[in-house]
Design goal:
With 178 residues, this protein is of the alpha+beta class. It is built from two helices and twelve strands; from the N terminus they run H-E-H-E-E-E-E-E-E-E-E-E-E-E. 20% of the residues lie in helices and 37% in strands. The strands form three sheets. A five-stranded mixed beta sheet has the order 1-4-3-2-6, with helices on one face. Strand 7 (111-118) and strand 8 (123-130) form a beta hairpin. The chain is elongated, with a radius of gyration of 22 Å.
Length: 178
């Protein structure tokens, strides 16, 4: 008789715990993906090939909110850091964590001379890059470094320094071309 009295409360507790777990996690899913596939997914959201309500990219994760009210979370590559920047002539917006589906820069589809080197002088980017339709230029750089960047457009230049450590910004919009 005592055994039956214990089984019912234990069963109710287990059912309750499972229900709470499912309610909390029903809309949040951690998605497993290879590094190259995650980088392609980031590119697809950034270029508008895939749409989302939101696609925020922090130093460690891509968090996507779908139209079906799901939240999908993808781990970014362990050795690479994503940063997106939008040089401007007249107008910009404050930004720290880039939203691939929402951030818009002023100079869409324009060609820029982009130069990025680390503090030791090793060059990572030295090329002409066309900004995307959203006005941003995306790059993947090594993690845990300090960088200097120079961007030129139509005889005007912007310079900045940034870093790729945990919790550093992935969105740089403080690049007035002068």
């Amino acid at each position: 008789m005592k055994k039956n009295k214990l089984i019912i409360p234990i069963f109710i507790t287990i059912v309750f715990a499972i229900t709470i777990y499912l309610l909390i996690n029903q809309n949040n899913r951690y998605e497993k993906m290879e590094s190259g596939d995650v980088k392609q997914l980031v590119h697809d959201y950034s270029t508008g090939k895939i749409s989302a309500v939101s696609a925020s990219i922090s130093s460690d994760t891509l968090t996507v909110s779908t139209p079906e009210n799901e939240e999908l979370i993808y781990q970014l590559p362990k050795d690479e850091f994503f940063v997106s920047f939008a040089p401007y002539l007249i107008d910009t917006h404050p930004c720290a964590i880039h939203n691939l589906a929402g951030c818009r820069g002023e100079l869409a589809n324009k060609e820029f001379a982009v130069y990025i080197e680390d503090q030791e002088g090793k060059v990572y980017v030295d090329e002409q890059i066309t900004s995307q339709a959203n006005g941003f230029i995306d790059v993947w750089l090594p993690r845990n470094k300090d960088f200097k960047m120079t961007i030129s457009y139509n005889g005007k230049t912007a310079k900045t320094e940034f870093a790729t450590f945990k919790d550093d910004n992935t969105c740089i919009t403080t690049l007035p071309l002068t």
